[in-house]
Amino acid sequence: MPTPKVKDSDRQRCAKACGNCKRRKERCDGSRPCRRCVSRRVETQCRSSSSPTSSTVRPEQVSYVVSQPQPSYLCSPAPTSQDAPQHRHASPRNRSDCRDESDEPAQVATSSDIAAACLYSYHLPETVRDGYNDIPFVGNTANLSLLQQVHQLVEKSLGPSSISQKHLQHHLVDPCGRSASSKLTGASCPPNKPTLADSIYLAQWCLRATNSVLGVVNEEDLLHDMFQWVQTTSNTASISDPVYYLVLAIGAQTCPEDRDELAETYFEYGQHLTTNFFMEDPRTIAVECHILATLYLLGASRRNAAFMVFGNAVRASYALGIHQKDTGATDTDESRYRERLWAAIRKLDVFTSVSLGRPLATRECRDTTADENYSPSNDICSIFEMILVEVYTKHQVAVDSLQRVTERHRQWAGRLNFQFPEGFDTYSTCEPNITLLNLKESYYWTIMLLARPFLLQTVFSQAAQGRLSGMRDAINTSVAIRSTSPECILAHACVDSAVRNLDMLEGLLSTPYLPKRLPFTINSVFGSVMTLSIAQFADFDLVFPLGKSLDLAQRLLGKFRVHDAVADHYLSIAEYLRGICDEYLERRVRREMERQNLLIRSMIGSIHEPPDVSKEKNTERVEDSMVAPCDPIGPAFMMHGSIPFDMQWLPGTQTSMANTLDKFDEFMLPDLLSPTTWLQ
């Protein structure tokens, strides 16, 4: 007989209870955040539970719902109603054994469980509203998503974190431009043309800022056309005027002097002309205008506005067939121009999609690995696309996908070293080669994206073991992070890329004449900061100079903080994370000191106040069996040339990286869509 329907007034539980209250079996008021989560100071995790129950899952849906098993060490020997999880999720190998956790008694952890279980769950980020009370989409690749992972790790390891909901919300609020009335006034009153010397000066700064990243503007043609444009006295706007005004806007935005007001004036009028001329008809010059406008908005820290404007460039390029290699363009100059536009679109698409955590707007239809007209920039964008599609879109890390991506990495690094057989110096002249800097930044970024799930798996594994035992033995931790297992090698690769990316950018600190806004570089520095901060909680400072690299990142962000709102916000977060890492190091050293003090007191006595007895007992229980036995590793990775991470071989082994990946067990791979929330 079916259960009779209960009136809403007679319900004992809230139908819209949040996931935290459901898991803890507590009364929820249904609001977001609820009062119970606010009182527990976990309001950032208060959200509706979207995981289906076992009774609502159809048999054909099991393969999409099930995930890795709940590690047994997260269950206490005598679970209470507050911390018992709702369901036990079965792995693909044990789907037939999937059943409710209440049917089985909780088990105490063993070393084999810790060694075999997949210890990291890459769940979707928390719900954060922006300044317009909307809920923007934030994917797993976004900086905000990784920042929330750091926030949860800090809370579970050191206690309540000062990264509150306001910090996360500020990360989504971009600076606004001028008001609508000011924009209308500026559109009706065209700005005066600059002098010839001033126009050449601003155009050169624009070329220095844009061609180093995108290479969309031809320097010789631009300077020649702008010379003629400045000499004309006609008040009638031509079809080329939007390009000139946008070039002047970017030049005024990036030059050393404070010309932000003038830059905004040029930009608003250039956007006004772009809208009037190219709103309905797609043209190649319209694609160029939208690309320049996107780059200006990125420099102005208006990332969402840049994302919207960039969509116009993508649609126009597809309408013109720029994404195809053979489009019937007979003119060689026209063909090269279209190739430059498509390359710029791909770079902007990868940057905006990965940094904001949004789907790609373009797809590469060409063979970027072909020897004819090979471009390392186009090839690295293809590697970005492969990582996003094979890993983050599928929410899982498969062995074959990992092998394909790492093989592309080795090929790309080998071809770059072949093009520069004698090495390539980024700072060989008085000005840095920003083009080469951005190319190498992209290489390091792809490695950090690919290896991030394995680094997080390692960190959350160490945090879980530390919580279970009360502390971690320094020797066992040192052995664990020097393992030669493939997942540990990839975690090392993530941290190694972050360290070397910052070392490569150190030369910018001593560069006198530099564009004061470099959004690609700022994003790269902040990604390295969060990677190194996460690595600190797994004691990777025993292998890498994390403290020195974090200090270097703060100096790099501080160089751009005056004119870049995003860099200023990133610097405040970097300073906070540096303090958190110092606190973690102090606690680790203090625990080791107290551990040694137990032996000292037993030998020569002590006159100072002993620590808490319960902590001492937990300290004495630390044993080597809490960490799975791992093989020690020799020196750090062998580095070749300026591309340091070469996955061909490891010291002390005769196994190539491609063969090493064959040792992966599907059960050990990180699950990117597991509904389990670790350490809660």
From TrEMBL:
Q: Which residues fall in a compositionally biased region of kind Polar residues?
A: 74-84
Task: Give the signal peptide range.
Answer: none
Q: Which organism is it from?
A: Talaromyces pinophilus (Penicillium pinophilum)
Q: Any keyword Lipoprotein?
A: no
* Keyword Metal-binding tagged: yes
Annotated region Disordered: the residues are 74-109
Q: In its UniProt entry, what is this protein called? A: Zn(2)-C6 fungal-type domain-containing protein
Q: Which GO terms describe its biological process?
A: DNA-templated transcription; positive regulation of transcription from RNA polymerase II promoter by galactose
Family matches, as InterPro entries: Fungal_SecMet_Regulators (IPR051127), XnlR_reg_dom (IPR007219), Zn2-C6_fun-type_DNA-bd_sf (IPR036864), Zn2Cys6_DnaBD (IPR001138)
Keywords (alphabetical) are: DNA-binding, Metal-binding, Nucleus, Transcription, Transcription regulation
One GO cellular component term: nucleus
The record's section on Pfam families has: Fungal_trans (PF04082), Zn_clus (PF00172)
Domain called Zn(2)-C6 fungal-type: residue spans: 17-48
Q: Which domain of life is it from?
A: Eukaryota
UniProt-recorded Gene Ontology molecular function terms: DNA-binding transcription factor activity, RNA polymerase II-specific; RNA polymerase II cis-regulatory region sequence-specific DNA binding; zinc ion binding
Check the record and name the CDD domains matching this protein.
Answer: fungal_TF_MHR, GAL4
